[in-house]
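Please go through the protein record below and see whether the fold suits the sequence. Record follows.
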Amino acid sequence: MTDIGATENTTKLDFDAVVVGAGIAGLYAVYKLREMGLSVRGIDAAPAVGGTWYWNCYPGARVDSQSYIYQYWFSDELIKEWDWPERFPAQPVVEQYLNFVTDKFQLDKEYAFNTRVTSADWDNDKQCWTVGTDQGDKLTTRYFISCTGMLSEPKIPAFEGQEKFKGVIAHTARYPREGIDLKGKRVGVIGCGATGIQVIQTIASEVEHLTVFQRTASYGVAMHNEKFDDAARDHWRSKAKELQETVYNSFVGFDYDFEHGSWYDLTPEQRYEVLEEKWQEGSLSMWVGTFPELFTDQAVNDEISDFVREKIRARIKDPKIADLVTPRNHGFGTYRVPLENGYYDVFNQDNVELIDARNTPIEGFTETGIKIGGRDIALDVVILATGFNAGTGSLTKMNIHGRDDRSLTTEFDEDIRTTMGLQIHGYPNLFTVAGPLAPSAAFCNMTTCLQQQVDWVTDCIAYLRDHHHQSIEPTVEKQDEWVAHHDEVANATLLTATQSWYTGANIEGKPSRLISYIGGVSEYHRICDEVQASGYEGFSKA
């Protein structure tokens, strides 16, 4: 065990660092810390690695970032050895990739699986954390690094009479690993966001009857997926260095940006050509690669929203159904934009019924199904695609206490404040990869931002070691400065006016604040680099 920053009066610790999470960020953090020569313990509630891609094994789960940028950059050998089968790989493939990485670098030996953190308490005298688990462990560590993910704590609504239901209920984020036999079953899906769309389009042809309960319609973009042969894989491998540079200097961490300039620089015909080109591209470039005014200018957003609405309506035969599944309460891009592959066509099938659960809310469960609008809908299986307590849910569940016994759960219940989404005043040596108020909370290709944040964290720890410091935390002034900047940027957009999980509106009582920094990945990267170059100015070090 290497006790970095130790003095002769320092208590010997179990580990230099404890990392919570075995997904993209957690695995990379364990790798980096171990490469620095530190003793590290990884902890994950799952029985194996994968993080999001372990838990989200529901039918149709698929990444909507292109595979050739949804990967690690730290090993040229890894890039050469792994073969992505298609542009947008399915959940099993991404899980296999993370297992491949784990095996290659023997990361699993650093982990305690089937283990959940139940407490984390900062000892200011000993300058360390004591981390408790549901296995009865009490681990002392200098650094406590949360890599639990921005969408990992499911929102599981409590419907009246739910315990009476004699069928199967499954949340998509805790879907049975062995699957559920849906063939010939009457299935209900509650929720039509990104996850619900993937489930619905996948199972509609398999089930006897599908009832879709929709509260909020989504602007799905038609996915253009393609299989990769060796030539395609070699092409993207040859561009790896260029892609890495590009994603770190783009708006949301993809290999595309707003390359067409301002909406107002083009004629109406040219604007339409750009929109049509991006639509045909079949990726999230339709969202974050058209025009920057989409996020800030209501008139521009209205025109782009109408363009997408026309694309949606053209897919649906019944005008009444088309009215229901075409969003009207929010503009395109102000809510999570999913990719879809046959979703809207599902509503042309005779065995699919769409129910408006906003104007006619679900009343509750019965023994045989769901009651809504005075109807009893018979169901064998109910799939909850009801989302997450984004950004803060997994952090508040760990029962974290900082200096002077301050509670992170209590503080986040009152107001969501961080410094760059990476540290929190009053919680020394707590690092929150994918924490709230950073791009990684919602507006970034995950592998781009998670790797950048882990690099910042490990560079910070190396700085502390080299300068013989035992702890670091942002000053209250530095945190206030970041929150003010975050809010100024957020309030200049249209997103704060839309009720969504982006602003915490899906969780009753959650403080309202845009959960993710929307100033751009490149700008965030620049700010993080400036903090590092300044010797962490605005951060207290002990």
Notes: Confidence is low (pLDDT under 50) at residues 1-9. Residues 262 and 391 are 31 Å apart (CA to CA).
